[in-house]
Amino acid sequence: MTDDALRTPSGMTSLWYGGDYNPEQWPRDVWDDDMRLMRRAGVTVATIGVFSWARLEPRDGEYDFAWLDDLMDLLHANGVRADLATATASPPKWLVDKHPEILPVTADGTVLSFGGRQHYRPSSAAYRAHATRLVRALAERYGTHPALEAWHVGNEYGCHVSRDYSDESAVGFRVWLRERYGDIESLNAAWGTAFWSQRYTEFAQVDPPRVTPAGTNPTQTLDFDRYSSDELRACLRAEIAVLREVTPGIPITTNFMGFFKNIDYWTWADDLDFISDDLYPDPEDPESPMLAAMARDLMRSLGGGRPWILMEQATSAVNWREFNAPKPAGMHRLLSLQSIARGADGIMQFQWRASQAGSEKFHAAMVPHAGEDSRIFRETEALGAELASLADIRGERCEARVAMVVDWPSWWALEQASMPSRLSYLEQLIRWYRALWRRGVLVDMVAATGDLGGYDVVIAAGAISLEDAAVENLAGVPARGGQLVVGYQTAVLDEQAHARLGGYLGSLQEPLGVRVEELWPLRTGSIAGLAEGPVSEWGELVRVRDAQVLATFVGSDDLDGQPAITRKAHGDGAAFYVATAPERIGAVVERVLADAGVPWTALPEGVEVVTRGDRTFVLNHAPASCTVTVGDRDVHVGPRDVMVLRG
Ligand code: GAL
């Protein structure tokens, strides 16, 4: 265990293993059976109270803690730590009836009703007041309980409601805008309201970007995205403020949702003591292991490399996809160990015991409907034992030499309706990540204004809407001897979503040695030179000032013979510009890694090799066995199996 391991008053030394535990759905005698099975399975932590508000506060200001007292004591007696939720994710009916104005409103004016969950508008003063009152009561009652391991604030903020277009949200939006712009003329300039007669004369006139007859103002929309992410964070912060005041020694988290578009997690991470994440890779999708790896790398990076907790995953099938494929034998263990390999100090699932009623009754759990005599429970036990044997990995770090920029405002801006072509931001990231993953190269994710200093390679793709400081941050990479790779649609706009004139790219033009004269969406095409072969989605008329042309477009009308991939050397460093999506993107990656001196291996399909601390995990996601060379050893790994090598 290293100094980075999560420290709590309990001094817990095992990895987290357990899940969401909702005993209020069961008679009391089932709880005793739960404890017996938890002990058998090696459960160390249970997340409790996530959806318990209505049970904890059955009437306004009237609390019923008796059952939770009992549960906390029971967990403690059985050696299970409590990740205690603040229970504010789903307001009770009395609160909705008393304050119907807490219900969220969609862009077209529809009011969302009680009967599901997360039916609150983030800007609601009534919601926040009642939520923080409950949090204070919980903190005062359980702050010194010996079972308390951590606070779990809310649950999956924004999962169902992350944009609220109500009048109350409009009021909050105006306050946020006044803070950002100071005066209305600055807002007019930023939003480009000279266009289509959209000028405002006072903040009171400004609304959220509700449904409009034609193309809603792009900067208004982008600012509303920023505001909405901040507004949800204000809910989180309101609860955290109470917890820090009442229980300063107890670590705090909230469960993220991987690459979730609607919240800028960089701006949330510092509020938390540790990052936790929920991830449900689709068992049917052959790309799931790669996509899951990418999300796990994001979580590690959000915590600055410190360990994080996988807070939710399914032991087998979920119930919310169109088709819910089960996880075949071995897959759950593989995806769990993938998280450990990529920096997690705990593996939790949704949920402990499968519900008998409600809309998640067909969601897999650690104890399925069939009970303990089942494949799933046997896997649950086996995983618990394996994680117990890995406990001393706690706090160990992973070292990455390659970083990819993740920029939420660019994600929002790139996918607006008024863009030159419908591009997916995640797809831009995935293309590069996939090529690196297949070559066994570990990647950190970084914010555009984050510290890029420690990386030999930095990749920015589709980072379309960047502030000047971020563009300069990227430009600094080749200057200090690193390899910078810039993919198309990067720095085309500034942070107000205004076009950067004179060839886009802003201050990246100089280090790249190119400017972009014309954007040229391409359905398909091809290039010659580096990564020779088909390309898709995108082209550009790139004008080279002082860069080497590594590949040119072939055919595609006016693009024929024009630069597609360029490189400008800067001493030991270099800046690459990639103006299209080559099918053989791996060839570009190999060139960049070679220039950077970063080693890589061509891994068999579905295999990943990840080093954390002094352990190397060889994970074979494929249904056939494989042999991989790790250092000077040939390692044989069975189908859907893992080898953990030490030293
Ligand atoms: C998460 C949520 C859990 C449960 C789970 C089902 O979004 O936090 O409460 O609903 O999904 O997959």
Description:
This protein has about 650 residues and is an alpha/beta fold. The chain is about 30% helix and about 20% strand. The chain contains 17 helices and 26 strands. The strands form five sheets. A ten-stranded mixed sheet has the order 11-10-12-13-20-19-18-15-16-21, sandwiched between helices. Strands 5-4-3-2-1-9-8-7-6 form a nine-stranded parallel sheet, covered by helices on one side. A three-stranded antiparallel sheet has the order 22-23-26, with helices on one face.
Strand order of the largest sheet: 11-10-12-13-20-19-18-15-16-21
Number of strands: 26
Unreliable runs, pLDDT <50, ≥5 residues? none
The separation of the N and C termini measures: 15 Å
Global geometry: globular
What amount of the residues lies in strands?
15-25%
What small molecules are bound in this structure? beta-D-galactopyranose
Query: What is the CA-based Rg, rounded?
Result: 26 Å
pLDDT averaged over residues:
97
Structural category? alpha/beta
Taking the sheet with the most strands, its summary is: 10 strands, mixed
- Helix-residue proportion: 25-40%
DSSP helical segment count: 17
What's the short version?
31% of the residues lie in helices and 20% in strands. The strands form five sheets. A ten-stranded mixed sheet has the order 11-10-12-13-20-19-18-15-16-21, sandwiched between helices. A nine-stranded parallel sheet has the order 5-4-3-2-1-9-8-7-6, covered by helices on one side. A three-stranded antiparallel sheet has the order 22-23-26, covered by helices on one side.
